[in-house]
Amino acid sequence: MRPLLVLAFGVAAAFGATPEHVHWQLRFDGPVAPGAKAVGRLTASIDSGWHLYSFTTPPGPIATTLTVTPNAAIDAVHVYQPKPERKYDPNFQADTETYEGSAEFLFELAVKREAAPGSVPVEVKPRYQVCSSTSCIPPVTRTASAELTVQAGAAAVAFAIPSGYTDVTHVSRAAAPGAAKPAAEGGLAAFLLAAFGFGLASIFTPCVFPMIPITMSFFLNQRERSRRASVAQAAIFCLGIIVLFSALGLITSALLGASGVKQLGSNPWVNGVIAAVFLAFGLSLLGAFEITLPSGVLTRMNRASEGGGTAGTLVMGLTFALTSFACVGPFMGSLLAASVQGGAARPLLGMVFFASGLALPFFLLALFPSYLKKLPRSGGWLARVKVVMGFVIIAAMLKYLSAVDLVLRWNLLTRERFLAAWIVLFLMAGLYVLGFLRLEGIERDEKLGLGRLFTGMAFVIFAITLIPGMSGARLGELDAIVPPPDKASGDASGLVWLTNDLEGALAKARAAHKKVLVNFTGYACTNCHWMKSNMFPKPEIMAALQDFVLVDLYTDSTDAASQANQKLEESKFNTIAIPFYAIYDPARTAGDPVVATFPGLTRNEGEFAAFLRTAGPASAEGTSAEGSPLEGAGLTALPGQTFDAAAVAGKVLVVNFWATWCVPCRQEIPSFNALYAKYGQLGVAVVGVSLDDDASVIPPFLKLNPIAYPVAVASEATKSRFQVEQLPVTLLFDRAGKQVKRFDGFTTPEAIEAAVRAAL
User: Fold this and answer.
1) Which parts of 206-302 are beta strand (E)?
2) Residue 308 needs a FRET pair 20 to 30 A away by CA distance; which of 45, 276, 373, 760 works?
3) Residue 80 near residue 107, CB atoms below 8 Å
4) Cα–Cα separations (whole angstroms), residue 514 to 8, 19, 718, 738
């Protein structure tokens, strides 16, 4: 059953012992029949002097969210909130929406028709932030539960939305905390767009482009047909193209299934065959030989198409698709290979969009036949396209050959050799376009125009930019395709990863009082390579990874270790998609050792950093009683910055715990800036520790609200160590690192300055 996610704003993990200022009660309006709808009421009783933010409050404070725990009886949910009080908050410089005293949220549950009669336990989990005039509680998650009675023949409950209530089911701003999104879901739109683009690009290949005027004339020049009939026949012709290519995707999906499609992408035999096919296509386009279908097959299909009518036109579309294989084959191969990490449906969807892109120009030209006269004539430019495609396809062939080398661990096609081959191929393509290189059998090019000049220059420039990669330099997006610099010892960032040894990693982490970051990955997984080459070396991510024992669990090979790793991922996390990250806490001797998970590739540094900070250091044990009280406290630097916890040793230290969403925290910032300016040269250090779950929101906040003193980001370990349960909190340490004062809630500048003077 799919998770019943009602509304979500994923921000961070909840606190354990936070004071309760909101009390939740759940109840239902009587019994409900199977297949009917039940009305639930979730009441929030809010302590005097505190306010709860609504589901729809503008950014600044943390909005309330609600999740219904899945069960076998409930099928769908709708949530409604009462009208909140909306007013301008100068601290956020925006309107906020709040509730005071109490608020009753309504939700409508659709009960499944097959639900068995009896009591059904329903559990809802509100996640919320509350503030008073002096303090804010960091976002917490609480649970409210009640029994829903399912009774055959129960009277239907008439549910009318009260005045002032609004549906907030579909205003979610992120995934629910702990709700796993499919790893490949985010990339489906990009994949389908690329498939459609591949189809359009295929139009300009030497096998397809010359067929456009010939084929369209067949429809438009027949006197016995009206314009409308000609357009209809063109649509059927396009349908024939789509049917053939879609059938290839459907066969791929049906034969392999979800896990089989995934394994296809890393299978050395499959990648080897693709590499061989690409090599044949590439050499053919370079003029070594010509690839054609057997004449007998084409003759029989041409005779069938000559019969006329809908069937004949459909067969003509199939014939055209077959004859175009010599040029569109590489596009199709790349597309099918790229679809294998997205589940069983991707090959079919990819081929449908590819064929639609290929067929679209034929249909548009049937609608607007006058544009046929404006198409460029076949000639030297098609010969140039053909040769350039040959170079590019041979370069693509090396990618699949590299996958074979990576999976079988031959280490023959190293990064240096791969890049050397690419540099030569793209340099030759550029020189050919510029006219410095000629191939036998290819006519001399026409005069060099601006288009050819810039195209040739682009190929040459691209080849030159690959040269630093041979020395281990990162190549950005291309690092997902080229082999990694060092497959044996880790990744390009210098981090050390264990390989296929989860038990060994847990033992090592247990001894070092660390947690384990498990990377379910693949030898031929481009997204996995991208994360290691582009995300992990970022300063904030690198700093966070130092607190983990790192282990790669490969799942895409045929050896016993890969099979066992894939079985673990599927049974434990209900997915086989890669990359997939999980944080294990070896100190958890009871219950699930998994602290957090993160599915798939992300380009959002703050998002991945927040995931790594979810766990915090495994233990604060071993922290020295002398020196800086912030050492070993699980603090991390802001994105793109550094933070040295040891730098405050020997000073009077003021530590202010705050957050961007905390109103009294914002009010205190100017006084801490003044304190730092006044006493910074007298042996007083001030550090701001943010409890924001997403570190990426802090830099924009600091641009509008400058903080003169160092700022670090807290982890769960930090909150636990210093017992921070609500904000703001200010701690004062003497020169020996001993805590001498604690201020909870908003504190006047005079009180803090007096304590600092006493500590000096």
Assistant:
1) none
2) 373
3) yes
4) 30, 29, 15, 26
In whole angstroms, what is the distance from residue 430 CA to residue 458 CA? 7
| Of 544, 569, 568, 695, residue with least CA distance to 634 | 544
- Residue 226 falls inside a structural domain: yes
What is the reported pLDDT for 722?
87
Query: First-to-last CA distance in the chain?
Result: 62
Q: Is 367 helix (H, G, I), strand (E, B) or coil?
A: helix
Coil, strand or helix at 652:
strand
As for how many domains the chain has, the answer is: 5
* Same-domain status, 724 and 644: yes
CATH number (domain holding residue 708)? 3.40.30.10
Residues making up the chain, counted from first to last: 760
Q: 682 exposed, middle or buried (CB, 10 Å; 0-12, 13-18, 19+)? A: exposed
**Using CA atoms, how far apart are residues 606 and 186, in angstroms rounded to an integer?**
17
Residue-range definition of the domain harbouring residue 658: 636-759
| Number of helical (H) and strand (E) elements in the chain, helices listed first | 20, 23
> Which residue carries 């682009």 as its tokens?
458
- Alpha-carbon torsion 532, 533, 536, 537, what sign? positive
State residue 3's pLDDT score.
Answer: 38
Residue 1, helix vs strand vs coil: coil
Q: Look up the CATH number of the domain holding residue 141.
A: 2.60.40.1250
Going by C-beta distance under 8 Å and a sequence separation of 6 or more, which residues neighbour residue 142?
22, 24, 125, 126, 127, 128
Buried-exposed string 173-192: b where 16+ CB fall within 10 A, e elsewhere: eeebbeebeebbeebeeebb
Domain-located, residue 488? no
In a domain? residue 714: yes
Does a structural domain hold residue 620? no
Residue 592, both tokens:
């699930």
**Residues 340 and 414 both lie in one domain:** no
Q: Are residues 190 and 302 in the same domain?
A: yes
Cβ-Cβ contacts under 8 Å for 267 (sequence gap 6 or more): 407, 558
- Using 50, 70 and 90 to split pLDDT, how confident is the model at 575? confident
Question: Which of the four pLDDT bands, split at 50, 70 and 90, describes residue 111?
Answer: confident
Beta strands at 85-89 and 94-99: parallel, antiparallel or unpaired: antiparallel
User: Does residue 191 share a domain with residue 203?
Assistant: yes
Tokens representing residue 595 in the block: 């602290």
* CA atoms of 169 and 753, how far apart (whole Å): 48
If you search the block for the tokens 């604690």, which residue do you land on?
A: 742
Total Cβ atoms within 10 A of residue 249: 25
437 and 521, same domain (yes or no): no
**Average pLDDT of the chain to the nearest whole number:** 76
Is residue 733 located within the same domain as residue 691? Answer: yes
- State how far the alpha carbon of 546 is from the alpha carbons of 111, 160, 242, 259, 465, in Å: 48, 55, 51, 33, 31
What stretches of 116-226 show up as alpha helix (H) in DSSP?
188-202, 211-220
pLDDT at 692 over 80: yes
How wide is the angle at C-alpha 732 spanned by C-alphas 728 and 738, nearest 5°?
135
Boundary-marking domain end, from 439, 473, 507:
473
In whole angstroms, give the CA distance from residue 184 to residue 351. Answer: 18
Mean pLDDT of 300-326: 57
User: Final residue of a domain: which of 615, 648, 672?
Assistant: 615
Integer Cα distance of 94 and 706 in angstroms: 18
* Structure token pair of residue 72: 């076998």
Q: What angle do CA 452, 455, 458 make, to 5 degrees?
A: 150
Name the DSSP letter for residue 117: S
The full DSSP string for 510-543 is HHHT-EEEEEEE-TT-HHHHHIIIIITTSHHHHH
Tokens of 641: 């910055």
Q: Tell me phi and psi for residue 461, to 5 degrees.
A: -60, -40
Task: Kindly state the tokens that stand for 91.
Answer: 């601290």
Q: Let me know whether 317 and 341 are in one domain.
A: yes
Confidence (pLDDT) at 277: 72
d(CA 739, CA 382): 78
Please indicate, yes or no, whether residues 392 and 352 belong to a single structural domain of this protein.
Answer: no
